[in-house]
Amino acid sequence: MKIGNxxxxxxxxxxxxxxxxxxxxxxxxxxxNGADFMYTEFVSSDGLIRDGQKSIKKLDIYxxxxxxxxxxxxxxxxxxxxxxxxxxxxxxxxxxINFGCPVKKIANRGAGAGMLRNIPLxxxxxxxxxxxxxxxxxxxxxxxxxxxxKSVVDIAEKLQDVGIQALTIHGRTRAQMYKGxxxxxxxxxxxxxxxxxxxxxxxxxxxxxxxxxxxxxRYGVDGIMIGRATxxxxxxxxxxxxxxxxxxxxxxxxxxxxxxxxxxxxxxxLEYKExxxxxxxxxxxxxxxxxxxxxxxxxRLKLLTATDxxxxxxxxxxxxxxxxxFRSEDKxxxxxx
Length: 337
Hints:
Elements: E1 2-3, E2 6-7, E3 13-15, H1 24-32, E4 38-39, E5 43-44, H2 45-49, H3 53-57, E6 68-73, H4 77-88, E7 94-99, H5 104-107, H6 119-132, E8 137-142, H7 152-161, E9 167-170, H8 185-191, E10 200-203, H9 209-219, E11 223-226, H10 236-246, H11 255-272, H12 275-289, H13 297-305, H14 309-323, H15 331-336
Parallel strand pairs: 3-11, 4-6, 5-6, 6-7, 7-8, 8-9, 9-10, 10-11
Antiparallel strand pairs: 1-2
Helix pairs in contact: 1-11, 4-6, 9-10, 11-12, 11-14, 12-13
């Protein structure tokens, strides 16, 4: 698979852009575990062109995480073009346009998945950005606005016609939000449309190696994007790669290994963000790193409420001392301890 000058090889795995999750610290951890391509947290075009510090900070990218894309969202063509030109100066490998975010405050303004209610504007905006920047432009979208308006097959052709170089499709409508199951049928239909020549990346409900292999084999997608399943489980990339190559499952990391990774992740987060914010945004990761341990509710609550870095590390090391080499997929061990 190739996007612009970036060669990603066979069966590439993408880390989905997620607000307050895919910061540089988490991107580093995912890269260590085998992610082939990553994105910044998605960036508001309005925030960027108004010099909003949070939006500008999201443009920080580092050599260790390349190749990487910057994803933008907005509802006004001029603002999106200006934001794309600003983002281009950060020198990512590509600019990605978010036409898929279903969150009400974004979609109801006509940005993100809200653009699925105005396809002509979507195409016009995309074409304007493609013409304005020198980098490859890609798009992420959904199947359609709702069950009665699944128009992604037609949208894909139109987006390709105005010059995008890859398309990511999440297998839900905007109306579904993140509920129900992702429908990969239309993703496969887009991929197997003889008119489509650009790479198609599938997204939705990739929760492990078997599902990843199934969608590659059944729908023929060029790559897969993984989002929520990476939170507290960044080794999913490693697991999928190994399974695709060998047909064998890797063992779940031991608690010792997870503790090492959690502390490394925490330390890196503190390097990139102010202390309290780093701790607040790490909570969802830390509680999930140790998901599956028996009688974990009380310890999980401590991880979710601790506000001091040293206290968090003490809790993690207490988990390590208690569980050590335990691997959570060993169900017999879980219930016999």
